Amino acid sequence: MRFWNSLHTKFFLTYSLIVVAIILLVCTPMYVYLQNNIEKNTISRFDETVSKIKDRLDERVNQFDVLSKLLYWSSITNDSPAVNYLNGLASSQDFYERYQMRGALKSFVTMLSTVYPDAVNIRLFTMEGDLISDSEDDRTSVGSYEQYEELKRIAATNGETLLSYEPRDPWNAANDWPVFVFSRMLLPWETRAGMLEVMVKADALVDLETLNQIKGAQLNLFFGDAIIYSTDSGENGLTQAQRLEYNRLKQRSSGEKYPHMETSFGDKQYVFNKSNDKSDFTVMLTVPKKVVFASLVNFRNVAIAAMLLLILISVALFYILSRILTRPLKQLKNSLDRISLDESDEQPGMDNKYEMDEIHLINRSFRNMSERLKNSLEDTVRFRTLQLQAHFDMLQAQINPHFLFNMLGFIQSSAEDRNLDQVSALSQNLLGFFRYSISTQSPIITLEKEIAFTIQYLELMKIRFVDKLQYRIEVDSMLTNLVVPKLILQPLVENSIQHGFDGSANGLEVVVSAYTESAYWVIQIEDNGVGISEQRLAKVIAKVEDYLRQMLSSAEGEGMSQGGMGVANSMGRLKFMFKDNFTYEIANREDASGVRIRLQGPLRR
Hints:
Blueprint: H1 2-5, H2 7-73, E1 75-77, E2 80-81, H3 82-91, H4 95-115, E3 119-126, E4 131-133, H5 149-155, E5 162-166, E6 179-186, E7 194-201, H6 202-205, H7 208-212, E8 218-223, E9 226-230, H8 240-252, E10 261-263, E11 269-275, E12 281-288, H9 289-292, H10 294-338, H11 357-398, H12 401-416, H13 420-438, E13 444-446, H14 447-464, E14 469-475, E15 483-485, H15 489-500, E16 508-517, E17 520-527, H16 534-553, H17 565-578, E18 583-588, E19 595-602
Parallel strand pairs: 14-16
Antiparallel strand pairs: 1-2, 3-4, 3-7, 5-6, 6-7, 8-9, 8-12, 10-11, 11-12, 13-15, 16-17, 17-19, 18-19
């Protein structure tokens, strides 16, 4: 589980998933868009191939229709059209007249070849078997047309254009190339004068080179329901499924015009179908689906490979980046494990291999933190040492024989006088006093508890001095929870009692007050005693300042519970706690009776 909970893993997985999602969101619509375009372009390419064949067929049919009309309309001699010459050739028995007619028709057919430049041969057949051609190599007679299936098929029509395919010229063995034959009956409703045939080379209609480049492609040309040409060598050039598909297309388009219909049959073929607008010709190209969409499949494979490669590269980069970014954290953890407060030890740092400003700043901050931590711990140790010193000084001062003797004497005297309430009060205050002063659980305490301890001390001192000692406590309720070092007020109050009495019968009043000024707290301890001379005041302040200097440079201090040094100890611990925000003042009161000690610090440490 540590692997999944590591920052490196979470960072890597999170940003990898984000990158993958962004790549998919960007690439998927792009892929769909390009896929649709490629599919349309691919279909358009095959459709264009079929359209070219169909357009060439339309062009040849139109040329054939023009040539046929010239036979009806163009005069050879004496305003007589070519079909009349065919009628005369069929009815005349005169050899010379027939010879002239044949010569005129031959010249006319030769002239027609210039109108139909793509024609290999233009031939006219009479019903009696005469053959007139633009070629000198052709025969002049073929015998009765009933001997030839092709001529019989033409004779059975009513003048519509017929199209057939022949692997070679059937009338001239020298023409050894495949041809398409356009033919029709002339004057079918009158004398049925003869038949017209125009042969065009197959490659002039069908671009076999282009078709051969399409693997598995099959081209079929239909006239009506009959197939007249197929690039397939199988039976009739069509499979049963292809013929059923063709018949379905014909039924669909029986009542409407569909110049361009695309459909697929089966699961493996795709059909491109176009029909002639005037004639009953149909061009159908059948291509395997895998061939039609080969480019689309290639694009899909390349796109998926590119997307996977992009994702793989992005994931790898984020893995490396996540290691680079989390490496300083691991180094920081290791540095924290090795950190030492010994000044002689070299402090660990972090390697900034990639020269990143952030790592440099973290490294510098880490070193600064280490230094501050060391200083803070040193201050804490020094503060704790001073606090313990103050505690032991206080303990030593308060358990001296005079203090105990006096307190126990008062308790004995009260007991002998059967003043049980006073005995109880004395015992309770003395017990609380020693419990508070002996306790070492925490070096800091709230001002409320410090005031309570000071009151216990004052009550004990009040019993000792009987009616000569009075005190007042004035504390702002806002400062009851103020945190201060332990045992800072009692030494100051003790100092006021010890040095305030003048030995006369005059009493002494000690006032402890705490209040706020702006963003600071102020604690004052003042008395109405004899005061302090200017020389002695200067010496006390000098001792305090000297003590503070020694305290800031060393954790050790002198035994300073008497002669003003208890005051210095309290000042020192407050200085440790509040740093430069703490100030103090020791001075005589304005009326020259007594001393005032004023402490000031921030409300927020």
